[in-house]
Amino acid sequence: MRANTILLALTSASLALAADRYPVTGIVLEVDPPHHSFVASCAAIPGYMDAMSMPYSVLDNKELANLKPGAYVDFTLVVEKERSYAEGIRIHHYESSEREPLLARRLELLQPPRATVQPGQAVPDFTLTDQTGARVTLSQFAGKVVALTFFYTSCPLPDYCFRLSNNFGQLNKRFADRMGRDLILLSLTFDPVHDTPKVLAEYAATWKADPRTWHFLTGPLADVKAVTSRFGLNFWPDEGYLTHSLHTLVIDRRGKLAADFEGNQFTAKQLGDYLEAAMAER
Asked: Do 40 and 134 belong to one domain?
């Protein structure tokens, strides 16, 4: 009996050594604990597979703890002869790289974000002004998926506001035949004093944005802060620039917050993959 136990252990160890292991990074699109799996849009694995969205199994549902749509993760993909699974799933919590991070942290302590809307909850209605001077109300897009991001036109950092706007530019191209019918893009400025409708119209032209389907929003500073605070966003002036959080939100067809993509590490493709899944839900 002892010999059989040792042989079984050696066989298992041999199989484990024979398994291929690949480091993977991606954005979580769906979590499915009953089936011990999650779906993620992942970057290419050189020499193994292209970037794609696919389901990944886990051996222990503890791996799925705290996972939610929009989370940026890395993990190891274990590929054995008869099965594959993800292990060592780690969530990356975004840390802003402002020019003075210690100051930013102190200000956040003094002015903590007051997120009142969590994923799965209804997003309160709001009304702001877009690049054409028209009043835009969130509830007018009921029945459609809405992607909402935040920026300001004079942001000097290419990996901050510009990247988030470029993500939307890519979505605008990818879903050209579904814009307005299934998908609406909203870009809300952190700098409403400078970013007037005229300034926003010039900025929108850079992205060839159709004002009927991609609205660049502004309004009184108090109104802008009322919207951003609902999602725990914070911003303040700092030596001529604005220090701010980075978030891209997805609101589903029922008007509920579906996902919060924090930071700037995700790609336009990964965001688009999530939106495609969200639009498929009726």
From this structure: no
Beta bridge partners of 179: 183
Beta bridge mates, 218? 129
Contact 195, 128 (CB under 8 A): no
Q: What is the CATH number of the domain that holds 110?
A: 3.40.30.10
Residue 218 has pLDDT above 50, yes or no: yes
Q: Are strands 214-217 and 127-129 parallel, antiparallel or unpaired?
A: unpaired
User: How many whole angstroms separate alpha carbon 36 and alpha carbon 63?
Assistant: 9
The pLDDT of residue 238 is 65
189, pLDDT greater than 80:
yes
Q: Is the dihedral of CA 193, 199, 204, 210 positive or negative?
A: positive
pLDDT score, position 114: 60
Residue 137: pLDDT above 70?
yes
Structure token pair of residue 98: 């402002």
Q: The domain that contains 19 carries what CATH number?
A: 2.40.50.320
Q: What sign has the CA pseudo-torsion 178, 276, 264, 189?
A: positive
The SS3 call for residue 164 is helix
